[in-house]
Design brief:
The structure holds two protein chains of two kinds.
Chain A: H1 2-14, H2 17-29, H3 34-54, H4 60-83, E1 93-98, H5 106-118, E2 121-124, H6 131-141, E3 145-149, H7 157-168, E4 176-180, H8 186-192, E5 196-197, H9 201-212
Parallel strand pairs in A: 1-2, 1-3, 3-4, 4-5
Helix pairs in contact in A: 1-2, 1-3, 1-4, 2-4, 3-4, 4-5, 5-9, 6-7
Chain B: H1 4-10, E1 14-15, H2 21-26, H3 35-41, H4 44-56, E2 60-62, H5 70-75, H6 82-96, E3 102-107, H7 123-140, E4 144-150, H8 153-166, E5 172-176, H9 190-199, E6 204-209, H10 213-226, E7 232-236, E8 242-244, E9 247-249, H11 254-266, E10 269-272, H12 280-291
Parallel strand pairs in B: 1-10, 2-3, 3-4, 4-5, 5-6, 6-7, 7-10
Antiparallel strand pairs in B: 8-9
Helix pairs in contact in B: 3-6, 4-6, 4-12, 6-7, 7-8, 9-10, 10-11, 11-12
Classes of the chains: A alpha/beta, B alpha/beta.
């Protein structure tokens, strides 16, 4: 049994979606509970992937393939979860997007993917997102976390504009704001009154978990 | 004027220009408005900037076409003006150039991932996008096509192939941005980049933008080791940007960058300049250092 789970974890780390799908099926056939597979293979696997990115062993394509492998395994595990009327624990609800005037997508999408893999429900609003749309979606989804990406030194100001609009809408208290993007920094987060800054997708997962204490 | 290939062979260093984007923002380009829009609507600040680079000592200036490929222009609703933008940008650069200035066209990334099955774009689609832009630029009359700020080896290959197909005979410069643990964010090592670009028959290749001056130095050193005979390019940021209150600050002084430029040349660089955060003042001091 633990053999299959080890292999499944390896398939996630290696970014092999087909293998991960197949191994998830084998795990279920062997009588492993889907939640066990998630907790003992997929989650720790993604954690290792994140660590590898952090130390420079892994790069964006590796992260994306690992997330893809995790997704492939979940496709197999989810129907079984439903059948058992179990649920993967949802750690929180995240609204995320790249701020208005900025069309950089890759980093933001990676953060969304990694948060999703870590167990958050993620609403990715895409790029060039107007201030009002962030506010609308935070309200509509009852989000705990708002992620704001900006890759340009000029559009970073719009991260501040969203935070100001949150305050005006009376929503600031209920939502943690995390910012990211190449020119952003912890100092910038402090200047504009964000709750935290995350350097990369891996750190974003840690930061969000800390903020929500999950 | 000596053609650019012979100039590279002569060993005499070509001083490129400095930043375009960060300088245009200083000149009032609003956040979120792509510089390409100014090419059509407000060309004077672009021409003034390029003239300032020529006066500071740039032998080569780069037309304002970084984001003027179809994929990026689609994001800002300018795709139907692709031909006009590319032509006009080259014309503006020509107006700013002296009779001894090389005019390069800028080709930047598409912004899409070429990573099937996850990415939205295939190599073939990327090639087509780059070929379309390169064809217009070739017709507008440029001395060199400068492909820059690439992170993905496949996208770089598509850009070079597209340029070679659509703009036969125009020399190509090609640079990657190294910004994550000494590699590009897609994981391309400087050695790998040098090996690939060597076989693609580009006139010069190297590093631009990047995270820190040190990272660019390391990348250029590794490229030089891998391809000792290649003419290299080093066009780094003026350090890593940081925010002081609400202002963006790039810490590398003109003197800092000139010191690095000397190191780059010692490691085989034949084209030196600056990227984000660098100014005509940086170029002036780099040019003086090269002359001495």
């Amino acid at each position: 049994m633990s053999d299959i789970l080890n292999q499944l974890q390896e398939a996630v780390i290696a970014g092999e979606p087909e293998q991960a799908h197949e191994l998830a099926a084998q795990a279920l056939e062997a009588g492993i509970a889907p939640l066990d597979a998630i907790d003992r293979s997929l989650n720790p696997g993604m954690q290792i992937v994140g660590d590898k990115y952090e130390c420079g062993d892994y790069f964006i394509p590796d992260l994306m393939m690992a997330a893809e492998a995790m997704k492939a395994a979940m496709e197999k595990l989810e129907p079984e979860l439903m059948a058992r009327q179990e649920q993967r624990q949802i750690l929180g609800t995240v609204v995320i997007g790249t701020v208005e005037g900025d069309i950089h997508e890759i980093g933001k999408s990676l953060v969304a993917t990694m948060l999703g893999a870590a167990g958050f429900q993620v609403h990715d609003l895409g790029v060039d997102v107007p201030v009002d749309r962030f506010i609308e979606q935070v309200k509509a989804t009852n989000a705990n976390v708002l992620g704001l990406s900006a890759l340009l030194t000029t559009t970073m100001r719009n991260q501040e504009a969203v935070i100001e609009a949150l305050k005006e809408a009376g929503l600031r208290e209920g939502v943690k704001v995390v910012i990211g993007g190449a020119p952003a920094s912890p100092e910038w987060a402090a200047t504009i009154g964000a709750d935290a800054y995350a350097e990369n997708a891996n750190e974003a997962v840690d930061v969000v978990k800390q903020l929500l204490e999950v | 004027m000596q053609d650019i290939a012979s100039r590279l062979k002569s060993g005499r260093v070509i001083i490129a220009d400095g930043a375009t984007g960060t300088m245009l923002h200083k000149a009032g380009l609003p956040a979120g408005i792509p510089p390409e829009r100014w090419v059509l609507e407000n060309p004077d600040p672009i021409r003034d900037l390029q003239r300032a680079y020529v006066e500071a000592g740039s032998d080569l200036i780069i037309a304002c076409t970084f984001g003027a490929n179809r994929k990026r222009l689609e994001h800002t609703g300018l795709a139907d003006q692709l031909v006009e933008i590319n032509q006009r940008a080259v014309q503006i650069a020509r107006e700013a150039a002296s009779d001894r200035t090389y005019v390069a066209a800028d080709i930047g990334p598409t912004g899409e991932l070429l990573l099937p099955p996850i990415g939205k774009m295939t190599y073939e689609q990327a090639l087509e996008i780059f070929a379309e832009q390169a064809a217009v630029l070739a017709q507008a009359g440029v001395d060199v096509l400068y492909i820059e700020t690439m992170s993905d080896l496949n996208e770089m290959k598509a850009a070079v192939a597209g340029a070679q197909q659509a703009a036969t005979g125009i020399p190509i410069f090609a640079t990657f941005s190294f910004d994550h643990h000494g590699r590009t964010n897609m994981g391309v090592k400087p050695e790998q980049a040098a090996e690939a670009l060597q076989t693609l028959e580009v006139a010069a290749f190297g590093a631009n933008c990047g995270a820190t001056l040190e990272m660019t130095e390391e990348a250029v050193a590794k490229m030089h080791e891998t391809a000792p005979k290649a003419a290299l390019i080093a066009k780094p940021n003026a350090g890593k940007p940081r925010m002081v209150e609400r202002e963006v600050v790039y810490d590398a002084t003109p003197e800092d960058m000139a010191e690095y430029a000397k190191k780059f040349v010692a490691m085989g660089a034949r084209v030196v300049g600056g990227c984000c955060g660098s100014t005509p003042e940086h170029i002036k001091v780099i040019a003086e250092a090269m002359a001495s």
